[in-house]
Write a structure and sequence with these properties.
Blueprint (H helix, E strand, L loop, with lengths): L2 E5 L2 E4 L4 E8 L7 E7 L6 E6 L6 E3 L7 E6 L4 E6 L8 E8 L11 E2 L3 E6 L1
Parallel strand pairs: 2-11
Antiparallel strand pairs: 1-3, 3-8, 4-5, 4-9, 5-6, 7-8, 9-10, 9-11
């Protein structure tokens, strides 16, 4: 089992940058693929970025490709999401999640954090 806690959200102006972190409790973090998802008010939760268990492969939603970077530090049991060139449409609650298999499908992920709010002002 993996417990996940996100942090780093906040209010930022359009064009700005922010880094989210996701701290994992448990000794098996390095065996899980990880993902970031987001949910804006009135919308469904959507995939943002994913990374394989050892960090050898990353993949992104088209809407964030070239602006966001997912990474992980297995020694620190931490997942990151570096977000640059932020836009108002990036405003959402951001969630990290763990899965046994790398995927952009929400249903594949077994463990979820509680989310952290990002608000991008125009």
């Amino acid at each position: 089992q993996v417990q996940l806690v996100e942090s780093g959200g906040g209010l930022v102006q359009a064009g700005g940058s922010l880094r989210l972190s996701c701290a994992a409790a448990g000794r098996t973090f390095s065996s899980y693929a990880m993902g970031w998802f987001r949910q804006a008010p009135g919308k469904e939760r959507e995939f943002v970025a994913g990374i394989t268990s050892r960090g050898l492969r990353t993949y992104y939603a088209d809407s964030v490709k070239g602006r966001f970077t997912i990474s992980r530090d297995n020694a620190k049991n931490t997942l990151y999401l570096q977000m640059n060139s932020l836009k108002p449409e990036d405003t959402a609650v951001y969630y990290c999640a763990a899965s046994r298999a790398a995927s952009d499908q929400l249903s594949v992920y077994d463990y979820w954090g509680q989310g952290t709010q990002l608000t991008v002002s125009s």
